[in-house]
Amino acid sequence: MEKFKQLGLSYEILNVLENAGFKEPSEIQVKSIPLALAGKDIIGGSATGSGKTLVFASPIIDNLIPNKNVQALILTPTRELAEQVADSIRKFARNKKLKVLAIYGGISIESQIRKIPYTDVIVATPGRTLDHLKRRTLNLNQVKFLVLDEVDRMFDMGFYRDVEMILKQCPKERQTMLFSATISPDIDYLSKKYTRNAIEVSVNSYVDHSKLKQIYYDVESHMKFSLLVHLLNKAKTGNFCINSSGSQIKEKNNLVMIFCSTRRNVDLVADNLQKVGINSKAIHGGLSQNKRSRTLDEFHNEEVNVLVCTDVAARGLDIKGVSDIYNYDLPSEAKDYIHRIGRTARAGSEGKAINILSNRDYENFENIIRDKCLNITQEELPVFETIRLEIDAPRNRFRDNQRRNGNNQGGNRSNQRREGNNRGRSFGRGNNSRFRNTPRGINNNSGGRSHSRGNFGRGRRY
Ligand code: ADP
Ligand code: MG
Fold first, then answer.
1. Alpha carbon distances (Å) from 154 to 161, 180, 310, 338
2. CA-based, 20 to 30 A from 19: which of 119, 187, 347, 397?
3. pLDDT at 209 (0 to 100)
4. Nearest CA to ligand 1 atom 24
5. What CATH number labels 209-391?
């Protein structure tokens, strides 16, 4: 605790940290908590899971005098992250009288309207914040602390217009703190625009290679699901087993997240995993907020071991016990990859990132491994049983689309042949010539999300 004390934190916070079993501050905390407490604007970059929430929570908890006006606004890209950050601040502020409220869409606005007049700190997604501002149910005139968590995402095309409108309504006299694990030069201009003499604190390396092992398998597209099931079974993750009284219980408590690029693939994979007896649930932006929250709670409580998700779950979520991250579809950018795999190996624990590549992922994979900080090694394909991926009646449209697009998730002979020929390539950094034959843009075929920026509606379509 002595090291935390030296950062200038109040007794009230130190007491909470001690009870939570925190032993010593992380590097980003050592470097930036004193600056944050001194009221400096900060642009902070450090690895996923390195404790950035405590950094921006510290001055809010220690320097804000509660008066039931909204004095701190923290914006996050997803509803789940807003809820989590609000919860963390409430915990860190347990010894202070601070009212913290999460506001986001997909749930009733009325109860938020009733609570805002008693609130000191708001953690919110941009869309619902704007709704409140338009209805004049939220006033930001008294904001003294402004935080953009996952700032690079908040400055993305999909969010930026909303964020800009919100920031315009905050007083100029304020402390602004911007944080992410992936702060790149392309957000320099906007970061400077919204801060004053900000101090840039950057702790190198997105990924701690000693804690996080990253591997990839190169497999024919139609064998992806079979390989996934084989690997999950081998790790005995989320399997049901029958206990002595004859009821189904889960076998092991390690948690797994499987990322897919589209809502359809998420549903498809989650449904099919259920069918083969793997305790899985889906989470994506197309589900009701109620369902999203319930599923995430079940995952937190280990009632569900396997969460199949879109990038809606890639940013910021801190779920204890997540040991393995699978990329069933590879994301198109290294930045997204880093956030996905950052759901494991958090706060000093260990984890594994497993990438299941097929022909249509090659181009994305090339983009990802161009980032020199990532070290992903190829793993030999094991011998595994073929399992047919079943596409349910409601998703026949999907199968039709896939056939039309030549995407053989459901089985397309000619494509299988082509993919078979392309298998076994070795991936090298910055050498595109070997992949000239990779079909371009084929990822768009798997439905839903388009990669062209500016094509998103409000926020990003996860
Ligand atoms: P980030 O925002 O950098 O991804 P979080 O703020 O979500 O990371 O913190 C990740 C996890 O680590 C949380 O469960 C948090 O309570 C815990 N944590 C933060 N700081 C420390 C610390 N100094 N020691 C131990 N655990 C910590
Ligand atoms: Mg965070």
1. 10, 10, 18, 16
2. 119
3. 74
4. 22
5. 3.40.50.300
